[in-house]
Amino acid sequence: MQLASLQRLNAARRKRIAAVLLADLDSHGERIVLEGDPLEGPSADLIEDAFRSGRSMAFDSIEGRGFLNVYLPAPRIAIIGAVHISQYLTPMAGLAGFDVRIIDPRTAFATIERFPGVPLSTDWPSDAFLVDPLDRYTAVVALTHDPKIDDPPLVEALRTGCFYIGALGSRKTHAARIDRLASEGFTPDALSAIHAPVGLDIGASNPAEIAVAILGEVIQALRSRPLSLSGDGAP
């Protein structure tokens, strides 16, 4: 790998921007493609697939031979609410490769006894995000059922463009939530990004099953997400 390529990859990693190293075995050339860069030419589809799947690959076609090494930021889940569902969702998500943190200002719920070894914040979500901001590789799952706690992180997630935004609650609860968030200036199209009721429709009936449904929907969103239309700045 050329020094210039390594420097760009390191800069992208610091900014949590996905990057692909495209190496041409015939010309011995290489280039870095950042998520959001215009994609064109015979490798465009392969690069797009690599950004979504996270899989590196070799290619051999009439246009040339080479390989793609993909470097994705570690996907994260910010769970709002130290509730029973969170106790199941946290270890499942960790096994699936997500970095997970719990945010809940209710100190009676957010305890190390209930969430051993899990990063916990008892700050209000808005304050927690000042320390560790959201980004497009973070999923936000709001589970408290308390608008004072759930609404601000949903607003922040919408403004950030998080790849997944989900909120617990019935359709009636969500309709009231949509009315509240619309007052923040979001359009109906923007608010449609919120998955509610949260999780895939698998008939889940207990906290563990709801956690499975949520994680499945988060993974689905990560692997099918639209790529950003413009980069966050070329490192």
Quick take:
With 235 residues, the protein is α/β, with parallel strands linked by helices.
Could you explain the architecture of this structure?
This protein is of the alpha/beta class. It folds into 2 domains: about 5-70, no CATH class; about 75-225, Rossmann fold (3-Layer(aba) Sandwich), CATH 3.40.50. The chain is built from 8 helices and 10 strands. The protein has helices at about 5-15, 45-55, 85-95, 125-130, 145-160, 170-180, 190, 205-225; strands spanning about 20-25, 30-35, 55-60, 65-70, 75-80, 100-105, 120, 140, 165, 195. The strands form 2 sheets. A 6-stranded parallel sheet has the order 7-6-5-8-9-10, sandwiched between helices. A 4-stranded antiparallel sheet has the order 2-1-4-3, sandwiched between helices. The protein is elongated.
State the CATH topology of the largest domain.
Rossmann fold
The CATH homologous superfamily of the largest domain is termed NAD(P)-binding Rossmann-like Domain
Number of folding domains?
Answer: 2
Name given to the CATH architecture of the largest domain: 3-Layer(aba) Sandwich
Q: Based on CA inertia axes, which overall geometry fits? A: elongated
Q: What string gives the helices and strands in order?
A: HEEHEEEHEEHEHEHHEH
By secondary-structure content and strand pairing, the structural class works out as alpha/beta
Task: Kindly provide the name of the CATH class of the largest domain.
Answer: Alpha Beta
Percent of residues in helical segments? Answer: 25-40%
Pfam families: XdhC_C
Protein name: Xanthine dehydrogenase accessory factor
Domain XdhC Rossmann: 78-218
InterPro entries: MoCofactor_Util/Proc, XdhC_Rossmann_dom
